[in-house]
Every structure is written in structure tokens, then in C-alpha cells.
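Below is how a single chain appears once it has passed through the pipeline. First comes the sequence as given, then the structure the pipeline wrote out for it. We keep one example in the README because the format questions we get most often are answered faster by looking than by reading.
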Amino acid sequence: MTASVLKQQPALAQLPKNYLITLDDISAITLSGEEQASYLQGQVTCDVQQLTANNLINGAHCDAKGKVYSVFRLFKRQDALWLLQPKATLAASLAALQKFGVFAKVSINEQQNHQCYALIGQQAGDILKSQFAQVPDSMTPVVHCDNTTLIYISQLNKIARYLIIDNTKQLTQLIQKISLPIYPQSVWNLHEILAGFPLLNQSAIGEYVPQMLNVQAINGISFTKGCYLGQETVARMQYLGRNKRALFILSGNTDINISLDDVIEQQLGKNWRSAGKLLSFYQADNGDLYLQAVLANNIEGKLRLRTANEVSIELTLIDLPYSLSQE
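Resulting structure:
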């Protein structure tokens, strides 16, 4: 019997000490074959050569103009490279990788027959220790226990996040053993928003260079690895200081439903002007609202901000959990 998923959209303060999230909207592109690493090295912003069986690397996949198809977490699993990412960006990234992959000894596909859950909480590590001989941590973020892959995601506010990946049958049995409340994908999106990890929707594909999404701030760009698709644009943004936008976190409260087609406005004098585009959001049942938006990178925290479609929704900037400084 499959455990049921709660339908609530809880406020951050209402989440229990420990819980699971079913990641139904996350999948992965897998690369296998003799030239899997060398091929991927020429396609993405991160240094694939630094990948081992037990580390995790953030990165972005760009087109030839340096515009982002996807932002992913890269790791090894069963002799394959996995680019874990939202399903919203997977099709475009997969098609681009397969297009050039015909010239290399590599097989590129969407992963099949696997599921992914997140385990989050103050005792999440101890809960995993009751089930596995080894648990990942900040020094060894990826471990493999038989067929199960466990991934440690860096802590935020002293709350650890783990990913659990396995085939559907084994993972279903494990989730029943752990026996914790299970929340929907939207709660994972809340954590990604607060961590400043970019969540691209389909309309954002091909719109931004990596620095506009703070990919450099999450250590997802190597500026020393050599050539890759879109590198010229990414390097120009870094060394010539031409990037004028960045990803920011905003919060508010409203009982009005918002949508991804909304934009953010800022008040300038007596007028309101467009400030940037919405990337993703989480709206709790009590009205608490958290958003990711790409805005001018010199935006001031004291500015009044709102959504364009619903002008009554006032927004406040939240401090990013990392620095945007290039020094």
C-alpha cells in the first residue's frame, strides 16, 4: 500500500520536526558510456572532471548564446552521470544534449523506473541511520547503499535535507518503514526558494545567463575548466561586469492566488515600473507567500515591491543565504 500524500500547503512554521516530500516533479537526465564525462564537460558550466562517486556538483546547461536550459545537481549512480532537475526543464535540456551526443560514445536518456523522496528535519540524519549503514554528510554528500542513493543537501537554518533515490518498489517499502508525514512537491519548492537554488519554469528556459540565476553563488560555474557551450557569454558576464540582474527571494502574505505569469513591480516616486520576472513561488494555506524572482542586481531593500497582476500584494526582500559578490 502506498502512503498517502498530505494535501496541505503548510506555512514554514507549521511544518513538523521531521517529514518526507514526494518529488514527483523532479527527474534526471542520465549519461552513460565510455565518453560520458568528457562529453558532458563540454556542455555544462561545472567541472565534470571533479566529480567522484561521493560528491555532488551544482551546474547549469546553456545554449550556444549562454542562455540557461536547466540548473541541476550532478552526481554518479550505477556507472552513469545523473543531472537531477525539475521535469519542467528536462525536455529542452535532454534534446540539446542528445543533439550533440550523436558524435560521442555516450547514451543520453531520461531516467526511468526510479523515484525520489526528500527527508527533511532536525533528526533526519538519525532517521536514515536507523535504515542504512552509511549516511551522507557535508564531507561525503553522496553515498550508495546497495541500490539506494542518498544525497545530503546543505543545511539551512540548521535543518538538514536529504534525497533518497531508488526504484519504485524498494523506495515505497522504505517510505513505509520511515513512517513520517508526506508532503507534496510544493513544500520542496519552498525549501529551494529559501535556499536560493533557482527553480526554472518552462517559460524561463533560454531567458537567462547563469549569473542572472546566481549559479556562480551556488558554486555551479567553473571559470577555469576550459571550453563549453555558452562559455563566451558566461565569461564576459563574469570578467567584464556586464550582468545587471540576479535572483532574489521575496515574501508576502495574501489570500489571492498568484500565478507564474506574474511580474514584479517596484515603486519609483509616485509611479510603478517593472522590476523583474517571477521564477517560482510557494503559497501556504494561511496566505504566507515566498517567491523567487530575477530583478536588477542593485535593487534596494527599502523599495516598495508588489505583483503586477494583483497590486494589493506587497512584497519584501529576504536576505539570500549566500553572497553575490564576485570577490
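The radius of gyration is 20 Å.

See the next section for the split statistics.
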